[in-house]
Design a protein that fits this description.
By secondary structure, the protein is of the alpha/beta class. About 45% of the residues lie in helices and about 20% in strands. The structure holds nicotinamide-adenine-dinucleotide. The site of nicotinamide-adenine-dinucleotide (NAD) has 24 residues, from helix 7 and strand 9.
């Protein structure tokens, strides 16, 4: 079967054989996202106006802004904010600081946010943004000026009822605090308290939520727990490999080990390490905080990057970047389940091969929704000025993650499709229902 996927923005067409032809197909990340969307749209019979609307972002904001560096020189940075859809609620999505950030990547990530929020049942739309930069190459003072100038350049394109950024790869709570502070200063004294919710993932002192820091990793673990219940596995019997030991991978590793899992192999941008009897993730976190990466960790032996994918483990958790599980790597994988903590880690042809080999995938829009769910709780807390306890946050997170999984499992059975297609189907039906009720202006 040939899938004919039209990316109307670029005007080009991707033809893809449903059976992997033995080598990876070249396509952009946005083409992958559009392809996934159209597959699910076909499955649920999504009508044409909805299909056309949801395969394009609503707004694409690109800003070029100058910042003075510590040595007195000037550099012009390029930043993006893509607002994919806001039929359900304000645009919502992270900000990525990475050298590979470009319009195509951010468009894909923004689309995934629309479907993730719809699937999680929270009143947000989808957006994503970023700056093309390697943040490790700049001092804290320079990063502060870059973040503040980027916020200023975005201006009224963001706002607590309009578009709400959050942390992603290369950004953190400190940067979210700077965004909030810059935005409130631009908003005038009368609005200082009411605009705190312009960004989520802030520090607790600046109006952040308990549990936001670990929310994505915790949500990934709740996803794994739900799968264990579904297939009759014991969580504490599972061995795990993880790519990425940052916010998502690091918290997931610690929480999974606390609940009895054996973390056997971990890789990041500095290298790969393994310990057959289990890595001590608390000590590893301290090492990474000090050294900047997992390489050289004394409680493990060094391994090759490809060993991470071919390791003899039950579960693989990609928690770094997109397109990491390629067709070639999928051929070597021995795990039974992939839980996509990262966005877009599996290429479409790798996914087909993994399906043929009986490897299940919990897709990104389902597995890593914990971050945006607790971002929603943070936004609610900022609006009401009533701050929640840790238990309230955790219970709310678990309920929403498991509700989304329940809906996907039911849809997967009724449509006899993959878990990714079922996740999209649930999201698309919710979005389509809203368009049907509201109509399309004018
Ligand atoms: P982070 O910057 O905290 O960590 C990124 C990790 O990826 C680091 O360990 C880094 O070493 C590793 N990495 C980077 N380049 C790599 C490479 N080439 N090879 C191997 N490892 C590499 O980012 P994060 O917030 O943990 O995000 C990780 C993933 O999770 C991304 O796909 C992000 O979009 C997704 N995600 C994040 C959140 C969140 O709340 N932060 C929410 C949902 C999804």
């Amino acid at each position: 079967m040939l899938l004919d996927v039209k990316d109307a923005v670029r005007g080009d067409t991707v033809k893809m054989d449903a059976k992997p032809a033995g080598k990876s197909v070249q396509r952009s990340l946005h083409q992958t996202a559009v392809e996934q969307f159209h597959r699910a749209a076909d499955l649920v019979g999504l009508p044409e106006p909805h299909r056309a609307i949801l395969s394009h972002p609503k707004n694409e904001v690109i800003v070029n802004f100058p910042v003075q560096l510590d040595d007195g020189s000037w550099e012009v940075f390029r930043g993006f904010r893509i607002q994919h859809n806001n039929i359900i609620g304000p645009y919502k999505g992270g900000l990525r600081f990475h050298p590979d950030v470009d319009l195509d990547e951010v468009k894909a990530l923004a689309a995934w946010m629309t479907f993730k929020c719809a699937l999680a049942g929270i009143p947000f739309g989808g957006a994503k943004g970023g700056v093309t930069i390697d943040p490790h190459g700049y001092s804290n003072a320079e990063l502060e000026r870059i973040v503040r100038r980027f916020t200023h350049a975005l201006g009224s394109n963001i706002g607590p009822e309009h578009d709400i950024p959050a942390p992603d790869v290369g950004t953190n709570a400190m940067m979210m605090d700077w965004i909030m502070d810059t935005y409130t200063n631009l908003s005038g004294p009368g609005a200082k308290q009411t605009v705190k919710g312009v960004v989520t993932g802030k520090s607790l002192a600046c109006g952040g939520s308990l549990g936001r820091d670990s929310a994505t990793g915790q949500g990934v673990l709740y996803s794994l727990r739900h799968w264990c219940g579904e297939v009759g596995e014991r969580l504490d019997s599972l061995s795990i490999g993880i790519q990425g030991f940052g916010n998502v991978g690091g918290h997931f590793a610690r929480l999974a080990q606390r609940d009895g899992c054996t973390i056997r192999i971990v890789g990041d941008h500095t290298g790969t390490i393994r310990n057959e009897t289990g890595l001590d993730t608390v000590e590893l976190a301290a090492w990474v905080a000090d050294q900047g990466g997992v390489a050289g960790f004394p409680g493990a032996t060094a391994a090759d990057t490809e060993e991470l994918f071919s390791a003899d483990i039950d579960i693989f958790v990609p928690a770094a970047l997109e397109n990491q599980i390629t067709l070639e790597r999928a051929e070597t994988m021995k795990c039974r389940l992939i839980v996509e903590a990262a966005n877009g880690p599996t290429t479409p042809e790798a996914e087909i091969l993994l399906g043929q080999r009986g490897v299940e995938i919990i897709p990104d829009i389902l597995a890593n929704g914990g971050g945006v769910i607790v971002s929603y709780f943070e936004w609610l807390q900022n609006k009401s000025s009533r701050y929640w306890g840790e238990d309230e946050v955790d219970k709310g997170l678990r309920t929403l993650v498991w509700d989304a999984h329940d809906a996907v499992v039911v849809t997967k059975r009724s449509l006899n499709c993959t878990r990714r297609e079922a996740a999209y189907a649930v999201a698309l039906e919710r979005l389509a229902d809203l368009y049907d009720r509201r109509g399309i202006f004018p």
